[in-house]
Specification:
The structure is a single chain. The protein has about 400 residues and is α/β, with parallel strands linked by helices. Helices cover about 40% and strands about 20% of the residues. It contains 14 helices and 17 strands. The protein has a 7-stranded mixed sheet with strand order 4-12-11-10-7-5-6, sandwiched between helices. It has a 4-stranded mixed sheet with strand order 1-2-3-15. Bound molecules: pyridoxal-5'-phosphate.
Length: about 400
Amino acid sequence: METRSMGQYIEDAEKALLHTYNRYQIVLDKGEGVYLYDMEGKKYLDFCAGIAVFALGYHNERYNNALKAQIDKLIHTSNYYYNVPAITAAEKLKKISGMDRVFFTNSGAEAVEGAIKAARKYAYLKDGRKDHEIIAMEHSFHGRTMGALSVTGNPKYREAFEPMIGNIRFAQMNDFGSVLANVTERTCGIILETVQGEGGILPAEEEFLQKIAALCREKDILLILDEIQCGMGRTGSMFAWQRYGLKPDIMACAKALGCGVPVGAFLLTEKVGANSLTSGDHGTTYGGNPLAAAAINIVLDLFEENHIIDNVKETGAYLEEKLEELAAEYDCIKERRGIGLMQGLVFGRPVGDIIAKALQRGLILINAGTEIIRFVPPLVIGKEHVDEMLAILRSCLDEA
Ligand SMILES: *Cc1c(COP(=O)(O)O)cnc(C)c1O
């Protein structure tokens, strides 16, 4: 039996784990619905969901049982063989996205890596050049591996790890002119988050997206949408781009796709699927293993059965309305932005102390950049939870 206190565990963690995170000083132990408990039994209302991951809420019996059943049957096979959960998960993903081909990964960054490789290979097969360029957005976030980092529009994250993969140009989000200014005859892809997450909960404007989609069609440049955070129902449609009636050539997905089991995927249209990566070009040992695929299957089943998207529409609209009220009421809040259950409050100052105070009072919030509080709760959240969150947040703001 372990007898260490929470404080002792935290102290010991800092001796054993590489210090790459400034963690909040709690050790989480269990979850129930939209609440988490630390190992001292303190209860927290969770508006983080493990960074937009645990959409279904904690301790979901159907989800847990599906995983347990798969564990008892078969956990891993490698991609040298077929397995039923991966086949059905791919079929379901095709159906909800309208995309044609699926490659399963273990994380979001790995999905972005695959997307970049597919775009480069597609262009290479067309003209044989080896100097293709990708346009990405300032303030974007696509992951921490070298390829994903190379298209991440935050110099602070990149600097110590230069050189990046090269031939990446950065444009301004929601400024089509700056995208156009970066297009050359070597451009093979334009990558962006349909709603920027880490960079500050900034949705791509419809007109901006439509113009990029048209430009991509005209010049046979591949449109790569990163739906890792904003996808899987968070904005009130299964994927955020679906509300605009356009379609990417490649889409990256992860986070809520497995609701906690580490999975990701990149999806391609038939045009790209048939003319890019082929046998020997790309691989992964774990990607789409039976356990990971079982998670995707049960997540997608529960999304449908529990009408998750309907709840996001309803509760997301309520959260938006209440945050608007809050923004109007408090001078320190400059702006509310976001869609559905992916919302941000922009403050004119760092928000770390507000988030720390909220945590003390049993509310888990996270930031997006230093001056924005991000709201990405489990998608099963109800209006009563929004009210509970607001009461705590108000008390913190009144004191700050
Ligand atoms: C989290 C995130 C990633 C990276 O995903 P990991 O699973 O952490 O590698 C990429 N893009 C976006 C938009 C994300 O939010």
